[in-house]
Amino acid sequence: MTLTAFVFPGQGSQYVGMAQDLVATYPPARATFEQADATLGFALSALCSHGPESELTDTLNAQPAILTHSIAGLRVLQTLQPAQVPALVAGHSLGEYSALVAAEALDFIDALKLVRERGRVMKRAGEQTPGAMAAILGMETAALESICAETGVQIANYNAPGQIVLSGEKEALQRAVELAKARGAKRAIVLAVSIASHSRLMQEAAREFAQAVNATPLRAPKIPVVSNVTAQPLTSVDEIRHELVTQLTHSVQWIKSIEYIIAQGVTQFIEIGPKDVLAGLIRRINSSVHAISIGDVASVQAFAK
Questions:
Q1: Active site amino acids
Q2: Integer Cα distance of 179 and 164 in angstroms
Q3: Which single residue of 76, 113, 118, 241 has CA 20 to 30 Å from 218?
């Protein structure tokens, strides 16, 4: 029997036109976006379909957009293939909220409200203390960790071997990028963001966000949810609350998370949501597993066959 894990993408996967064909084709996807529009009090569905891109990429909107697309895709998959139940679930950063919904630890409506608030506090933190992030390609982790110690930036995402994202104050980040280039990185790309996600610059945002997390109803997950912070399963409500707050200031341990899932016997990963970033990362972490992405009608129909 093939053991499957569902994984859910994080911020950066949004694009104008996302989920448009899913909504047009499948009633569960349309109902999911209608729920989101009603909950948020504005037409998120129209923003996803038609933009403008500048509004969609605003973290305040991108976070609920990606969550809604992911849950729309999940509900379509559950309708077409109800027997397809994952052994484990995980999400990359923001995607952890989609994973918690999939594990029935968090209701979709509550997840929407949480990620909207998460976007608000992160955006404000970025306005008060502008930060920066950079993707470093083709460099050993130990060498990058040494650069972090020298400059005061942090590793935000351990995405895949040879692909790590740094986060921190602008000047420190620029210095880290220069050092990475000088010490042999294949590429060092400053990302088009002003928010230093998964760094200590999010400490005030995390303190404020904790109030919303503590006020949100949660349940123990029915399916193991692998933590971004520890790369171990979240098994209780207290662990989930701690995770959602801690995650804002700590690294996303994506490599260790995928390695843990594979060690449980999983050989198939289904990425649900916009784009196919995670499937690519998973194949780089372990080329022997099967990783596919489901985010539009063509990919859903191909998988359903």
A1: 93, 198
A2: 15
A3: 76
Q: In DSSP terms, which residues pair with 133 in a beta bridge? A: 167
What CATH topology corresponds to 131-190?
Alpha-Beta Plaits (3.30.70)
What are the tens digits of pLDDT across the range 36-76? 999 999 999 999 999 999 999 999 999 999 999 999 999 99
Residues in the chain: 305
Q: Residue 286's closest CA among 263, 253, 252?
A: 263
50 CB neighbour count, 10 Å cutoff: 13
Q: Enumerate the domain spans of the chain.
A: 3-127+199-304, 131-190
Residues 6+ apart with CB under 8 A from 142: none
Is domain 3-127+199-304 annotated with CATH 3.40.50.1820? Answer: no
* pTM of the complete model: 0.98
- Kindly report, residue by residue over 195-252, the tens digit of the pLDDT: 999 999 999 999 999 999 999 999 999 999 999 999 999 999 999 999 999 999 999 9
The encoded tokens of residue 195 equal 């928010």
Q: Does residue 192 surpass a pLDDT of 90?
A: no
Angle at 274 between CA 268 and CA 276, to 5 degrees: 45
Coil, strand or helix at 194:
coil
Buried b (16+ CB within 10 A) or exposed e, 161-200: eebbbbbbbeebbbbbbebbeeeebeebeebebebbbbbb
Q: What are phi and psi of 38, to 5 degrees?
A: -65, -40
Q: Has residue 124 got a pLDDT over 90?
A: yes
In single-letter form, the type of residue at position 32 comes to T
